[in-house]
Amino acid sequence: MYKLVFHVIGFGLLALQISAIPTHSQNDILKNRESLSTLSAASSSTAVAKIQLGKLAEIALGVTNENIIHKTAASKHQKCTKDKLRVRRNWRSFSVPQRKKYINSVLCLQGKPARTPAHLAPGAKTRYDDYVATHINQTLGIHFTGTFLAWHRYFIYEFEQALRNECGYVGDYPYWDWGADADAMEKSPVFDGTDTSMSGNGAYIPNEADIILSLGDYAPVILPPGSGGGCVTSGPFKNYKLHLGPAALSLPGGNMSIAPNPLNYNPRCLKRDLTSALLQSYANYTSIVSLILNNQDVWDFEMVMQGVPGSGAIGVHGGGHYSMGGDPGRDVYVSPGDPAFWLHHGMIDRVWWIWQNLDLERRQNAISGTGTFLNEPPSANTTLETLVDIGYANGGPIAMKELMSTTAGPFCYVYV
Ligand SMILES: *[C@@H]1O[C@H](CO)[C@@H](O)[C@H](O)[C@H]1NC(C)=O
Ligand SMILES: *[C@@H]1O[C@H](CO)[C@@H](O)[C@H](O)[C@H]1NC(C)=O
Ligand SMILES: *[C@@H]1O[C@H](CO)[C@@H](O)[C@H](O)[C@H]1NC(C)=O
Ligand SMILES: *[C@@H]1O[C@H](CO)[C@@H](O)[C@H](O)[C@H]1NC(C)=O
Ligand SMILES: [Cu+2]
């Protein structure tokens, strides 16, 4: 059962320095309590769960806004003030010109030369590839680890920074609302293949076999194939070439494609195999709300999100990735090579942000896990002092503690 603790004003690290915690007005508390009575458990009706998710996001927004006001009042050094706050928005709420501006800035990054030295990643040719190369290089240290959520928060933020600083993007950062597309991905404004989408499905390949995900000694997870399978034929990214990988690409029928050096140059088309059934099973509104409401501990939250090994589930994170299908959609390492990656991880970050803001005091700085994939091989626990680094992509090494709040450290954004 979900219990909201009314520590709606949490200050993260700053809280420790502030003696008197401002109290909430009685009205706000009553209002929250009222809306929370309908939020004790995820509804099995996806239509109701959609409303629940909207309410949870509203609560998170309210908490973040108040937090900023109080932090600004408490310290002149507060960098993230209300006038600087950026909003991240649902791709569905972007106008046509806004969508085109975002897409053009991504295409721009794909046209700029890489920073990664060729001797480290000969296949990294563009600034976009710098992000793919770094993700490939670090995959086993950033998934099923203590850094998973924060690393990806930093990674997509620094991608946004590159769009802004190197490609003149001035719009909002978009997220993909999985629940809205769970019944028909092909109709999603993210994947409908129009020139305002992230390109559409791959060319249809008939009679594709199932995808078989194997992980150590756990029973394999069997996923159905989708409605495409081949190269993307429409939309802004139909001529885009993947340059890196494959590193661990699951193919229909159970084989895996692995390049001897996934950082070598291996130009090929972007493939998709849109699989609504996966989004429907793992990333519908009910699954999103129950992820948020049913997991009090950050370990449970991040594990359920990624799919608890052996449970047969792949979580909302895996649901989003594998529902894109194709190449690199089915390759954990190379996944940022699909331009929809950034919208998917926007939603991942949004869900974390909502979860954190429902109990900031306990969750703002909650970390669990180590520096290695499922702690294999065993490594030290991740802490607030652990450094994360996204290599040649952008930014510099940064401590976990800087990444835990979206309105502190380098960040100043909320989700609407
Ligand atoms: C991969 O990681 C290693 C170890 O952190 C680093 O030295 C190297 O520069 C990275 N390579 C790329 C391509 O980022
Ligand atoms: C899997 O790979 C083997 C060896 O390359 C090949 O013989 C077989 O046909 C492949 N299976 C499928 C389903 O692609
Ligand atoms: C929604 O997701 C949950 C858990 O991921 C699943 O059990 C349920 O069957 C899904 N609902 C629908 C309508 O597919
Ligand atoms: C690492 O974290 C685990 C789980 O929270 C805990 O049981 C263990 O004591 C920690 N190890 C160290 C060395 O702090
Ligand atoms: Cu990742």
From TrEMBL:
Protein name as it appears in the record: Di-copper centre-containing protein
Signal peptide start-end: 1-20
GO molecular function terms attached to this record: metal ion binding; oxidoreductase activity
A Pfam family this chain is assigned to: Tyrosinase
Keywords linked to the UniProt accession: Metal-binding, Signal
UniProt source species: Penicillium angulare
Record flagged with keyword S-adenosyl-L-methionine: no
Top-level lineage group: Eukaryota
Domain Tyrosinase copper-binding stretches: 338-349
InterPro entries listed in its UniProt record: Di-copper_centre_dom_sf, Tyrosinase/Hemocyanin, Tyrosinase_Cu-bd
